[in-house]
Structures are given as C-alpha cells and as structure tokens.
Structure of ATP-dependent RNA helicase CshA:
Amino acid sequence: MTFNDLNIAPEILKGLSKENYTTPTPIQEQAIPAVLAGRDLLGCAQTGTGKTAAFAVPIIQLLSNRKSNSNTGRRIRSLILTPTRELAIQISDNIKAYSLYTDVLCTAIVGGVSQKVQERALNHGADIIIATPGRLIDLITQKRVDLQYVEILVLDEADRMLDMGFIKDVKSIIAKMPSKRQTLFFSATMPPEISKMVKSILVNPVKVEITPVSSTADRIEQSIYLMESGKKQHQLNDLLQDESIVSALVFTRTKRGADRVTKELNKVKISAQAIHGNKSQNDRQNALNNFKSGATRVLVATDIAARGIDVEELSHVINFNLPNIPETYVHRIGRTGRAGQSGTAISFCDIDEIPYLKDIEKLIGKSIPEVKDHAYPMKRTPQQLNTEAVVQPVKAKSNAARKYKSETNPARNPKPEVSSTRKPKSEVNKTGKPKFGTNSARKPKSETSSPWKPKSETSSTGRPKFGTKAAGKSKSPWVKK
C-alpha cells in the first residue's frame, strides 16, 4: 500500500513526497482512514511507529476541506496536547512539512520560550496549535487562547502526561472545548486512570493497537553489562572509543547524572551534550540540533527530556542506568532500529539494579544477552546473589557498610571498663602528697584528705589578717573610739 491508496489530497501527498514518505506504517494505514471518516480513535502505539503522521495528515486534510470563516479570521480548530516541549516542537515541525502546500497554519505553544513570540503567532492566526498543558493554561487564563471552536482534539502520549502530573490540567483544558468534537487519544500504556479517561472522553472509538509495549523489535541487538558499582563511567568511556558507534543516545536516571556523564565524556575528548529539564529551551534545542547534524556524537538525556527526540539512523542507545519502570526500557531502545534499519541497545547494570533487570526481562519475555568480556565484571553473579539473598536497596547496603566500619574500627567503639591487667597507678607520689592533676589534688582544701592544714586567718599579733572574713566583720583596731 502507498499513501495514494489512503485518499490523501494531492497537495498533502506532495508534502509527504518532499519528506521522502513513500509507504505508510501499520498505524498510519489503519488510523488515517478512520480519522478522515470523522471517528474517534484510540491508538496504542509506542515511540517510532509513525503515529505523528497517523493523526497529523488526516487533520490537515480535514481542516483544508473545512475552510475558516473569512469574516472572523483564523480560529483554533485543532488542539494537540503533548507532555514535553521537545515533542511539541517536533510535531509542529512535522505538520509544517506535511502542510507545506496547503493553507493550514500551525504553531507551538510551550514553556521555556518567550510568550510574546507565541502571542504574535496566535494573533497572526493558527488552525492547529500544539501545546504543553502548563503554558496553554497560562494563555487561557490571560484570555489569549479561545478553544470554543476546536473541532479535533489530540492527546499524544497520554500515559506520560499522567506520569508528569498533567492529567488534572488536561481535564481542565478539555472542559473549555465543545463537547461535540473528534478526539484522537494515543498512549503506549493503559494504566487504570488512563482507561477511565478514555471511557469519559471518547465516543465509540476505533481502536488501533500496534506493537504491544512489552515487545522489542527483533532488528535491535540488545546486550547487558553486569558490572561493579562505580565503574559505569569507565566502561562508557572505553565503549565509545569504538568509532563505529557513530551516534549514541545515553539515558541516565537523573538530571545531575546526565550532567556528570557529559562532563566526564568531554574530559576524554568524546563530544557530548546533555538535555534535561533544568536546561533552557535554547540549550536543549541547540543540543538536539547538534546531535542530529552529527556535530555532537553523544546526547545524554533523561527519560522525560528525551520524549520527542526523533533522530533518523540512530545507531546506539545506551542505558547508563536501568529504568525502574520496565516499559521505559522498551521506549528507550525503540529509538534505534527505526524505519527497518538495525540498531544496538546496550545496558549497564550494577548490583542494585538486578531487580530492575529481572522486571525488564519478565516484561519482554526473554533474557538479554550478557557481555562477559569486559574490564569491570560484577564479582557475584545474579545466581549467587539469589542464593545468598543479599540483594537489598541501595540505602540498606549503605547502612550495612557503615555498620561494618563501626564494628571493625576500634576507634569507633567505647573502651571496655577494664581493658588492661596492669594495676592503676597511685595518685600520690613518694612524699605522700597527691600528684598534680589527680582527683585528690583537685579536692577542696577544706577536705581532710589534704595533708596540709589550712592557714590561720590571724596574724602572729593575734589581729585578723586584712581581707579575711574576720577582718570584714569587726572594726579596725586602729580606729579611734
């Protein structure tokens, strides 16, 4: 089948041809006719299946056929909600390419960039807006965006919006739209809250399910390095000395981890840039553009920041940290081996990540081949760990390490009350007087234990000495009466 067989308008086909689109993917083949027929759609598809074109192409055609009222100007007739800025920009770029030879206009409404620029684009007019929930709500509150004329709503990567806490905002946005509309809903997974939302906003939808999330493409070569803790950076540096790794997307669990890995790679002359939520929009876009052009060989990213990264011919995906959600592993490695090409997915796993590895292998239904010939092997195999039952959370291991140190370091333990067979030294010297610094020496002079008698407070004349209590109590003997 070709795109010509899907009843797509000639001007859109021209735009697709310019982008070298020839054969529709399975989700495009099933979704495009349903959307053109005006049906609601539930798409269960993971990253890399071509779902952007599956909803964008028919939306462009439907809006082209339904001309805007020239008297009222352009109104927002389609809203596409996405979880991240990168994904919104990616979709916007794709729609602009597909609609190049039509009169349909689109703009992206995202945080991290000047709102004034977006306001000007909205004033100029847009048929389609691609937005992240936060910035869109800001503009709705400021009455800069009016959604009462929206005809087609798209929720892309709804499960990610749930993970990021956007579902309440999404529901608030939907409440601003007409109840009579066409809704297209895409999600790689279907947790209970997403299933509940589907039932509340979709009307008799066509369900399109492509490549279950638990499966990984056969054309992706997967491998796992079991290694000692603290050796991952060394292994990554060694691995990237292989120049056949033309481009690599490296995943870390945290933003700080992404920055640290990037810094260490640059130290050994491996060009790398990081992309995560703490980076400015310009920095993130610059890093992505450099990676796509080949100016940067390695892009280090967190999961959320990586959403929307669409890089053709990505040779390698490297999991510096294994994800604690097994479905995320499938999303990550699905970024290589696209469009029928082969790809390589390499994962590093230390002792604390063994439970994550087991969950991943259970989900995908197979064991990931282990690379044993490397410089930093794990001292104990997963089988040994099972036998010894020593797999514990990182915090528990840290506490155990501290306990071990306290048991083995005598400086950390209090001395026993009788630690020596030697008799305690006498606190008096040979003269019978107490030694200086002993408890006896520090006793008050009035105590009988002292060998010295208190001095008399009277002088040899019998008169009280000046400054004594006796002197203070009586008058001076030299005062005349």
